[in-house]
Automatic annotation (TrEMBL):
<comment type="pathway">
    <text>Nucleoside biosynthesis; alpha-ribazole biosynthesis; alpha-ribazole from 5,6-dimethylbenzimidazole: step 1/2.</text>
</comment>
<comment type="similarity">
    <text>Belongs to the CobT family.</text>
</comment>
<dbReference type="InterPro" id="IPR023195">
    <property type="entry name" value="Nict_dMeBzImd_PRibTrfase_N"/>
</dbReference>
<dbReference type="InterPro" id="IPR017846">
    <property type="entry name" value="Nict_dMeBzImd_PRibTrfase_bact"/>
</dbReference>
<dbReference type="Pfam" id="PF02277">
    <property type="entry name" value="DBI_PRT"/>
</dbReference>
<dbReference type="GO" id="GO:0008939">
    <property type="term" value="F:nicotinate-nucleotide-dimethylbenzimidazole phosphoribosyltransferase activity"/>
</dbReference>
<feature type="active site" description="Proton acceptor">
    <location>
        <position position="306"/>
    </location>
</feature>
<protein>
    <recommendedName>
        <fullName>Nicotinate-nucleotide--dimethylbenzimidazole phosphoribosyltransferase</fullName>
        <ecNumber>2.4.2.21</ecNumber>
    </recommendedName>
</protein>
<dbReference type="InterPro" id="IPR003200">
    <property type="entry name" value="Nict_dMeBzImd_PRibTrfase"/>
</dbReference>
<keyword id="KW-0169">Cobalamin biosynthesis</keyword>
<comment type="function">
    <text>Catalyzes the synthesis of alpha-ribazole-5'-phosphate from nicotinate mononucleotide (NAMN) and 5,6-dimethylbenzimidazole (DMB).</text>
</comment>
<dbReference type="InterPro" id="IPR036087">
    <property type="entry name" value="Nict_dMeBzImd_PRibTrfase_sf"/>
</dbReference>
<keyword id="KW-0328">Glycosyltransferase</keyword>
<keyword id="KW-0808">Transferase</keyword>
Amino acid sequence: MTSPFASLADFRALLADLPGPDAAAQAAAADRNGQLTKPPGALGRLEDLAIWFAGWQGTDRPHCDRPQVVIFAGNHGVVAQGVSAFPAEVTVQMVANFRAGGAAINQLSRTFGADMAVHAIELDQPTQDFTKAPAMTEAEVVAALATGWAAVDPAADVFVTGEMGIGNTTPAAALAAALFGGDPAGWVGRGTGVDEAGLARKASAVARGLARHAAVLDDPLEVLRCLGGRELAAMAGAIARARAERIPVVLDGFICTAAAAVLERAVPGALDHCIAGHVSAESGHGRLLAALGKEPLLNLGLRLGEGSGAALALGVVKGALACHSDMATFAEAGVSGG
Ligand SMILES: O=C(O)c1ccc[n+]([C@@H]2O[C@H](COP(=O)([O-])O)[C@@H](O)[C@H]2O)c1
Ligand SMILES: Cc1cc2nc[nH]c2cc1C
């Protein structure tokens, strides 16, 4: 499908008209859950997870047989502010590594049977440094949203999106600060491993970005354009497309969640089809998830990005859905007490 939007106004209208879950399928799944051979509630959050997936997939026997992982890569003008522990050329080098099968996400995608795709977006054209100018023009942010929109396979049954972009914890922190308020220093973290001075440079860059773009801070899509990045916009576009297809989404780390938060702040409820795969070690991620009301499935101290935490969470999702959809009921198994 070519993208159904040509402007931010079109995208905004599309977001306001997204489908909800199938309440009947969800009710049928809750009923089935009550009949499975286990004490009530004994599978804990796995039970809620299965019932939630049932609603979005529109079946009382939800599945994770065709998970799709899509990684978007972008480069950032704000790296000129000294905000990353790694040089910008690592972005294109890691894209080559993804394509050669050598990154963590390749191994995790294979482990959980996910189809994996990589989209490098204009890596030779970094966004503008947001401390000096809007990161993107409207045409650029719409093109990135459309790349994300087009990347989703409508036949996937679970969707994961991740990113690669040296410097991108800084635009992610800027989005979080713009969307939820608070001191920039409270949203920046060590990313790939910056020292104290690097952390201070990140907080300063975010503060200057917020000041420069103060006029748009009440408009989440303009915030994405002025303070975000191409891979962040692409993740937002992909998450919106998954919603249009009613495909449940597993969110990854801080950058992915910040991109997703743009949609929720633009239209409350826009992330109802998303769960948090994990909470990353990036200091603002837990706070961002709390602001979105999302409880992460995993907390393993990851701070890699590239969809890795969400891909790992596919293991939990697969376990939850296998139990829900394939366990015997008390009646089927002849077990007393159901
Ligand atoms: O997902 C996370 O929470 C996360 C936390 C820290 C770093 N990263 C990854 O590291 C890169 C951004 O870090 P930095 O220090 O360059 O801003 C980018 O490629 C991300 O995928 C990702
Ligand atoms: C090596 C490397 C791999 C990554 N994967 C996601 N972000 C990354 C950042 C770096 C620096």
